[in-house]
Write a structure and sequence with these properties.
The protein is an alpha+beta fold. Helix content is 19%, strand content 43%. A hairpin with a 3-residue loop joins strand 16 (290-298) and strand 17. The strands form four sheets. A twelve-stranded antiparallel beta barrel has the order 5-6-7-8-9-10-11-14-15-16-17-18. The protein is globular. The protein has two domains: 7-63 and 67-72; 92-343, Porin.
Length: 344
């Protein structure tokens, strides 16, 4: 016998069914409410993200952004400077340096040669078989924009140590319109001491050269440079005057001006010119100006220049102070420069 009556069992079933219907309705309503809340939160987050992106773009565009209702000024974006390349194809412009300094890790070998003057005509094949001046040079770019070098010449058996540093570089946007480079050397005369050398002390063997070069590349074809230089000789010639006093024939310091340029006639060939003007007036033996011109042929690792001019030496202080060849009298000579580059 059941502990409940049939009538009460039916009533219990009815109550249970109604309760389940109410529970199901409550569950559906709760799910709908949770879904609405999640959708609302997602919409708020999405709008916040869109606002952040907009602020970032605005910051990139205008340099300002909104933070907590306030306007913050953002620092301007840093723009990397782009430099003009290949103002010249190598380190030399005939008898002068150029503003160019190769990239870090570049080793350079130079061969420079000057034949005799053409005045003797065919007798010495216009100076080709006459007395010649030669120099072998080596240089290495140890640090960015800094080149160190060493060379030896048969002109008075001189050896030289040199330094070249790019102070400024021309930029593509015009913020720096020119390139500026310093070049300097110290030269030692290594000949034996005798009656012809007149060396009193070791310091008498040394000469020095300092130069500032300024250049601008106007186009892919045309580049121009100019410079001012100071040469110093520790020992200069002298004579004894009528009163028995020694008088120097030249000053120890000498200033000079140079200007030159390159114009490309093909991608690998260019016309090169150079002019040097002495500025210092000496008591005697004033040097003559230099006028030179020729052709330059270049590849990625080689540069070859052949030219005619009236500088017979190779080291710059010797040319600027001691040159006695006069181009107005046709005292020209043929010369060439060869450079070879390696990167390590």
């Amino acid at each position: 016998m059941a502990w409940y009556s049939p009538g009460s069992n039916k009533a219990l079933k009815t109550i249970k069914l109604n309760y389940m219907r109410k529970l199901k309705s409550s569950f559906l309503f709760s799910c709908f409410a949770v879904s609405m809340v999640l959708n609302l939160i997602g919409t708020v987050n999405l709008k916040a993200q869109d606002s952040t992106v907009t602020a970032t773009v605005a910051a990139d565009t205008t340099g300002t952004a909104l933070t907590g209702g306030k306007t913050d000024v953002l620092p301007p974006a840093v723009k990397k400077r782009s430099f003009v390349k290949n103002t010249f194809d190598g380190n030399y412009l005939i008898d002068n340096q150029t503003v160019m300094v190769p990239i870090k890790g570049t080793f350079e070998f130079d061969i420079q040669h000057r034949f005799g003057t053409v005045n003797n005509g065919i007798s010495d094949l216009y100076g080709v078989f006459g007395g010649a001046t030669m120099r072998l040079g080596f240089s290495y770019v140890l640090f960015k924009n800094l080149q160190l070098g060493f060379g030896a010449s048969n002109d008075r058996m001189q050896i030289d140590w040199n330094l070249k540093y790019a102070l400024l570089r021309q930029t593509k946007d015009g913020s720096m319109p020119v390139s500026v480079t310093y070049f300097g050397n110290a030269v030692m005369d290594t000949r034996k001491r005798d009656a012809t050398t007149l060396f009193v002390s070791t310091s008498d063997r040394f000469t020095y050269f300092n130069q500032i070069l300024v250049a601008r590349k106007f186009s892919d074809k045309l580049s121009v440079q100019a410079g001012i230089s100071l040469s110093h000789f520790n020992n200069v010639p002298a004579y004894t005057d009528a009163n028995g006093k020694q008088q120097s024939t030249m000053k120890n310091d000498h200033f000079a001006f140079t200007a030159g340029g390159r114009y490309k006639i093909t991608p690998k060939t260019a016309i090169i010119i150079n002019y040097d003007q002495p500025l210092t007036q000496h008591p005697m033996n004033n040097p003559h100006p230099n006028l030179s011109g020729g052709l330059e042929m270049a590849t990625s690792g080689h540069t070859f220049q052949v030219f005619a001019g009236n500088y017979s030496s190779i080291l710059p202080q010797n040319n600027n102070v001691l040159n006695q060849n006069d181009f107005t009298k046709g005292q020209f000579l043929i010369g060439f420069n060869i450079t070879r580059l390696w990167n390590f």
